[in-house]
Each structure stands twice: as structure tokens, then as C-alpha cells.
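Exercise 7.
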Amino acid sequence: MTDKTEKLGKASASGVTRRGVLKTGAAATAAGGLGISTFSFFTRTAQAAGKLRVLCWPGYEEKDVVEEFEDTNKVKVEFKIYIGGEQMLQFFAQTPRGTFDAIVADAEYVTKLKAANALEQFSIADFPEMKNYHPDFADFAPVRGDGGKVFGVATRFSFYGISYNKSIMSPEEADDWNSLFLPKFKGKVGIFDWYLPNMGNASLAVSPKIPNPYDIPNAKLAEVGAWLKKLRPQVAMFGSSSQAVVQAMITGDVQVAPVGDLDIDMTMAGYDNYASNIPKQGGVRWQEVACVCAQSGNKDLAREWAKYMTLPKIQSRLVYTKAFKARAPNMKVTDYWDADQKKLLSYVPDPANPSKMLVESLISRSMARSLPIQQPDQAWIDVFNGFKTS
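Solution. The predicted structure, written as C-alpha cells, is:
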């Protein structure tokens, strides 16, 4: 890592995390904290005649991540930063086709982009680093195309599990979603206020280890709603950002939260008495995908940028940006990290299965976040709102 990398034990300079900027209402604040306008292109300085335009989450525009691509290809990369999948779709719809050459999308939104004929397929055979990817990211349903082609390649990911105070919740309790109902956690559970991850995890609590917790019939959706309503008396707060939940954990108002990676935020802030786990029933993970725009006039360069984003050296920086910390699908990232970074992001031996890294075990217990399959999005949103107001 460069000398600009944040040191462990200190809070992020921006105080911004990916989970913390998902809410549309927090978008302006988060973008301001990053020094980026979400309504204009952010351009890295480069000595180049050409340019590439990318619509993406925060982090990709940081110098440590993009500079080598610009220098190698003698190109200037312009970034338009979005906060959340719906804002991404809005930005894309509001600009003429061909404005963007590449998009970084959450995997579940690739489906909507494909339906809008917005993405170009390309051959995975041209991406040699895929051999170093964890199998769950080398081949996964949302990006599959025709004849072995894909609509995108994974770039970073992380989990929604249980984050908890180790002095109050035991590892054994953290291994079961139903531990959230324990009497000692009444009024002590913090919830990140977004329906998609919470309902995916609740679906797994109701139907453990099902292949897709978002592909359930109406009867199961009703069970998910009942499980959430049972949880309601335990809930202390609905945080509009993960940072709100972190602050409540620090004060003791919250002792456990089904948010997932708050231990990373807590460790970076200097607290070491927190941990996270994916319960035995399974948990949800998010994953971002680099895609090439179908109407781009610069598809070859866009594919080179997507290929660049699969490199372990680049992913080692991308998942350790000032914007937030995440995890990398290329398992060779550890070649570029020190021991503290490996420990923070779980790229260390799993105590329960030393032949695997802990991150691999967590991947095996997690399922990709998705959009609802059998019902419209609004049906799930209504169930979540019923949980909040019950």
C-alpha cells in the first residue's frame, strides 16, 4: 500500500462507508464528504488525448486505483459518482446513450441494465486473472451472457451478517439469526434502514441456506414479514447510515446489528471489542461488477479498464480506499497487503477450518444480494415498512 493508505486503529478521514451512503437522503452529505459532486464528472489529471467515462460507486476515482491505467493507456478517465443502485439507473437514464463507456453496478442491477440493452457482452477468456478469482465470483448468474460470454466482472464485495459487542454476545450466539430475539437484546438491536439486505437475511433465517433468499413465494414472504415483526420489540433504532449504527454501538445504545461489517469500521476507529459473523442459516453479500456500455464508442478501452480492475494489485487498493473498506474476489490480493490488512479483511486462516481463509468460509455461507424475483420490489418494500411501523 502507498503512504496515503489509512493506518489501522484510526477512523476514516471522510467517515464515509459504502453502507453509510446507500440511502438517497444521505447522498448529498456523503458525496460532499468525498469531495465529489454526484452531478458532474470527476476527472483525474492525466497527460492524454483520449478519455474514458465511467459511472461508478466511490473509490474507483481515487488516484491509487486509477492512475496506473491512465499512465499505461495514455488516457484520461472521467468518473460520475453515484450513491445507490436507483440513483445509478436515474443517472444512466438521464444521459444520452454513449455518454458512458463503462458502469460499475451492484450485481443485482445488472439485470435491469441488461433488460434496457445497456450492456455489451464480452468473452471471459480474455480475462486471465479470472483463474485467481474465488469460484463464486468467477461465474455467477447475474452477469452470465450467451455462449460463455459475460456482461461484467466482479470487482469488490462484502457481507451483511451480524455485528456485535464481544463482551455481550458470544460467537455461538452470533452463529444464529434467532439470537436477536434473546431477552438481553431487547431494545438493543440496530437496523440499517434499507429493505433489501434486511429482508434477504430474514428470508434466510426463515428458510436456511436456500439458493436465493429473494426468490420466494408469497407464503414465504409473509413468513419473512412475521419474523421481522417479531424482531420489532428488540429494535433500538433504524439508522439512515451504518455510521449512525456505529455511533450507537460506541455509546452502548446498540449491542448487536444485522449490518455485517461494522467491526471493520469499529477497528478503524480504534475499538477492538467488536466482531462480525455470518450465521449458520446464511447471510447476504453485496458485489460490484465492472461492465462495458453497449452504446460506448470506446468499447475496446472500456474492456481494458474492466480487465485492469481484475488485477490483484489494483483490487488490493480498490477495497482499501479512503471511501470505505471492502473485500476482493481475486484471492491474490494478499500478495499486496501487510498482516494488519489481511486480518482486518479476513484474509487469514479460518480457526474452524485452517485449510481455508476466513473470507472463503464467509463466502461459502453467504448468498448474493438480489432484487425480488417472484414479487415486485414494492411488495417487499411494503413488508419492510410494515416491520418499521409495527
